[in-house]
Amino acid sequence: MKNPDGNNAEKWLKKIGEFVKRLGQSINSRLQRIFTKENAARTKERALLWEQKTHKRINQSKTSLRKMKHKLDTETNMKPLLSKGAFGLNVFFGVIRNIFTGIILLMVLLGMFGGGAGLGYFANLISKETAPTYESMAEDIGNVELVSTMYYANSEAISEIRTDLVRTTVGSENISPLIKEALIATEDENFYEHNGIVPKAILRALVTELTGFGSQSGGSTLTQQLVKQQILTNEVTFSRKANEILLALRLENFFTKDEILTAYLNVSPFGRNSSGSNIAGIEEAANGIFGVHAIDVSLAQAAFLVGIPQNPYTYTPFTQYGERKEDLTAALNRKNTVLFRMLSEGYITKEEYDAAIAYDITQDFVPANATQEDRNSYLYQAVEREAILVLMEQAAAANELTMDDLEADIELYNEYYANADNTLRLSGYNVYSTIDKDVYNGMQEVAADYGQTLGETFVDSYVDANGVTQEVIELAQTGSVLIENQTGRIIGFIGGRDFSVNQVDHVFSTKRSPGSTIKPLLVYAPAIEQNLIYPASMVPDTKISIKQPDGTLWEPTNFGDTISNTYVTARQALYQSKNNPTIKLYVAMNSKGMNPGQYLEKMGITSIDESEYGNPSLAIGATNDGPTVLEQTSAFTTFATGGEHVSPYLIETITDKHGNVVYQHESEATRVFSQDTAYLTLDILRDVITDGTGRSINNYLNFNADWAGKTGTSEANRDIWFIASTPTVTLSSWMGYDNYKGEHVFYDPNNQGLPTGRNLNYWSQIANKIYSINPGILGTDQTHQRPEGIVEKSVLAETGTLAGTVSFANGLSVTLNGGTRTDLFKADALPKQISYYFSPGATDKDLEDYWDSYLAEAAARRNAAADETPTTEE
User: Fold this and answer.
1) What is the DSSP letter of 291?
2) What is the radius of gyration, based on Cα positions, of the chain?
3) DSSP conformation class of 452
4) Global pTM?
5) Which strand (E) or helix (H) includes residue 566?
6) Which of 271, 453, 493, 651 has the largest count of CB atoms under 10 Å?
7) Backbone angles phi, psi at 706, to 5 degrees
8) How many CB atoms neighbour CB 720 within 10 A?
């Protein structure tokens, strides 16, 4: 009887042999391309040897198969058996033999196929990798000095950038042999014998990974672990593992065993020290846990330290607060494991082992020493934050994203922020700020000396979530910033009063109602730009009554709850900071589709939502989410730069540890207003200083400059502002309460403007201090230059127009002439002709009342003149 299964198996085995042969040739070819020249010959040799062995095994398998086939044929053609029992027993043993032979054959085939496929897969994984050079590997394994530093504009250090990781590196000669022996015995007993990898360990780990059988024992040598920590990422993929193996081999070719061991001990994490800080490196670990140098540790101390890196935050004896853990069982057991491994490997005697096991290592721990970082300040906080934002924006741009894209996705924003924060802290960057050290320190002195004059300090009580009564101190806070107009460079700032009490940054972070400082930005400059007004235009200071969504009437007034019920010039309305004329102008602009809110965005004020642009009260600073002090101050620089806005910046340059430029700021200007519009607005703001709400600074300043500025007060005196520009810089001062647990405003009995007066004095003291430090910064020798497109013209004082005749619907007409005033105009927007609608922003009722009053007064004048004419007697 023939055995067809045997024939098929022979054909199948032949095909497998041919496949394995081709696979071996393919692998051999690929490996020749991948491996370095010095290993090419050896690699080829091994591949050919493997191929020969494979053919030999296949031939042996074929021979076995033929013998099995012959036996089967012989057995099936035997003469009839003498008895059925003997025949059955013979068949049974034949079947068992065939099954056993088949299993062995299958295992051989699977082994050959699996080995070839595995080798091919490994070759494919590493085929695209470029072998690193000695220099790059040396840099990678020694890359531990990664503390970044921030600097003033003069390159003097502000501070190292805070990181929770404390690291001190040492040379091999400063590490105790006990530590090295403990590490080798525990983590890599064949360290001095292998060339970077242990194939058996790798195979064992691979089988465990694929099958799930066996203990999760590591397959990594110390060399591989160093590669993982310093060169590769933490991703768990076969590709990364393959590269890890190759890099470990290469590392061993370039560096001595002692260099590898020392690098490993310098980079490994060791949990926390007695201050609660994260620590890395054996020297910092020995000092932070036992108060000794790494060269001076005892056997028990060495064993304890070496055991930590396997699971740093489980085995570390201290908490994040620097307190000793109550339960140290896991750490002590780990220490004992290390000692046992040292005994097993012959590094210590049984007597030494017993003594170290019995020793109470906890008595060697240094006392808890929790400390607070002293690097915190408004300056440190601001430079760190702005540097992170710069790196975030760079990373986003590299992925074709904008900051708007990140802000629209909170998870994406947090991801980019965390990556940028980590990069800044651990990359050894040098961050150069724009801050003038002397000016900055001088501004802080003013805040310390005059801060208490701003307003009363309150102590508010509240009950926390645990039912405990707490207190919070409410200082009258301040925010001030000095910006260079042409570049946007932030020269100095005051983030607040007493960082130890309140860490909120009141320049870069807090958003406040801008009060009347918004008037030139949102109303007057846009109205001049679109030729709705010029400084001599007459605008109504009359009653406003607007019905609110809740049915109530909004009826604003000027300072002191007054309304003059007259017409005032646009110039006067702005420098005297009148509310009602401003609101009427703003409403008129919106009704004409002029969209004045667009100018805020061009000047960098993006925190006021577009949905608020239609709100009439925005014209006087009422907003749900106002600008920061930095944004509002920066917007004012637009008038001093001829109508262009340059975004403010705090970070000038970021370089890496080799001095390569990672980031370099480049200022870009955005055209907001024409030069003529900017100058006309600025000229009105000069009047604020000479004749308006900011004139009291002339009593406090001890120098002269061409200032143009604006005061501002929000509802109920919650926010008090003053911002002013010279040709070179813009300086601001804001004051207000944060009101965490209370509702505090500045006390102003009888509406005398006392808070504004205090703020103007405070602003003046800041300016005086800056002038005393560096007079040139303030541009006291310069004046704002009038553009060629500005001309002087005269208009009727009554209407702000040219003299002329007005005709009415009833056929009556009147000729207006009389007193005039001279003011500045754009050459392409000269005084307007007189008309019924002479007043921008006036309502129909305003105009009707005006002309009725004018005509009545004209008639009265005529009648009076007639009565005074003498009669002639005949």
Assistant:
1) S
2) 43
3) G
4) 0.69
5) strand 566-569
6) 493
7) -85, 80
8) 31
Phi-psi group of 498: left, alpha or beta (phi > 0 → left; psi -120 to 50 → alpha; rest → beta): left
Integer CA distances (angstroms), 711 to 555, 721, 766, in order: 22, 5, 16
Please name the residue that has the structure tokens 């020269």.
491
Q: What average pLDDT score do residues 251-272 get? A: 88
The SS3 call for residue 732 is strand
Indicate the pLDDT class of residue 821, thresholds 50, 70 and 90: very high
Q: Kindly report, residue by residue over 398-446, the tens digit of the pLDDT.
A: 999 999 999 999 889 988 998 898 889 878 899 999 999 999 999 999 9
CA angle 427, 429, 433 (to 5 degrees): 150
Question: Which tokens in the block code for residue 727?
Answer: 């040709």
Residue 545 exposed, middle or buried by CB count within 10 Å (0-12, 13-18, 19+): exposed
Alpha-carbon distance of 733 to 425, in angstroms, equals: 33
* CB-side neighbour CA atoms (13 Å) of 79: 1
pLDDT value for 91: 47
Q: Helix 754-773 crosses helix 437-450 at what angle (to 10 degrees)?
A: 150
Q: Which of 323, 434, 420 is nearest to 369 (CA)?
A: 323
What percent of the chain clears pLDDT 70, i.e. is strictly above it?
A: 79
Which residue's entry shows tokens 């494979």?
54
Whole-angstrom distance, CA of residue 248 vs CA of residue 523: 68
Bin 271: left if φ > 0, else alpha if -120 < ψ < 50, else beta: left
Average pLDDT score, the chain: 84
What Å distances lie between residue 86 and 46, 82, 97, 100, 363, CA to CA? 51, 7, 17, 21, 81
At residue 218 the predicted structure's pLDDT band, cuts being 50, 70 and 90, is low
The span from the CA of 300 to the CA of 597, in Å, is 72
Contacts of 420 (CB under 8 A, 6+ apart): 388, 389, 391, 392, 395
Tokens representing 175 are 């590490």
Between helix 134-141 and helix 238-254 the angle, nearest 10°, is: 100
Q: Would you state the pLDDT for residue 37? A: 40
* The residue type at 319: T
- Phi and psi angles of residue 249, each rounded to the nearest 5 degrees, phi first: -60, -40
Q: How many of the other CB atoms lie within 10 Å of CB of 694?
A: 25
Residue 147 main-chain phi, psi, to 5 deg: -75, 130
Q: Phi and psi dihedrals of 663, rounded to 5?
A: -150, 140
Q: Could you tell me the two tokens for 791? A: 């001309």
- How far CA 62 is from CA of 2, 23, 76, 862, in Å, comes to 18, 20, 21, 135
